[in-house]
Amino acid sequence: xxxxxxxxxxxxxxxxxxxxxxxxxxxxxxxxxxxxxxxxxxxxxxxxxxxxxxxxxxxxxxxxxxxxxxxxxxxxxxxxxxxxxxxxxxxxxxxxxxxxxxxxxxxxxxxxxxxxxxxxxxxxxxxxxxxxxxxxxxxxxxxxxxxxxxxxxxxxxxxxxxxxxxxxxxxxxxxxxxxxxxxxxxxxxxxxxxxxxx
Length: 198
Hints:
Blueprint: H1 2-25, E1 32-37, H2 43-51, E2 55-61, H3 64-77, E3 82-86, E4 99-105, H4 114-124, E5 125-134, H5 143-151, H6 157-169, H7 173-182
Parallel strand pairs: 1-2, 1-4, 2-3, 4-5
Helix pairs in contact: 1-2
């Protein structure tokens, strides 16, 4: 599964992952500590580190396989300002108000209750810090069934299976907005990206 997920970077990295890393930079944090919650294979953390070496980036994930891959990816890219460790998004192992920027990419749909993770993301961010969360968007039928085959063109069978499961588990726009409000994230702005992300 880790290798299949990392396949996304080879296919869409310059668009999806690079775009998210650039959006994170536009949050206005120029230096300080960054936490990548659910870092997976570390591709976004690595891209952000390359964009700004004044950031000290820490990536957490529950999957040891993903973290092993993230560490290998960082070494291969020659990145030194990123660290990866085991951590649960529902109980982030850091004190309140620790990070200048907290990012989370495509994790919420994997959680039974994404509000738990959003509360934790909000808790570990500094009062004047920034948050950036993006996830897949569950579309109504029949749009979902029409879009998914196109979105998965060229994917391996494992990645196709994971992608279909992810989009079907995603939040609708109203559920995403409601989760942010329930988690107490003030001044949240929610935007959709294409049909597929929010």
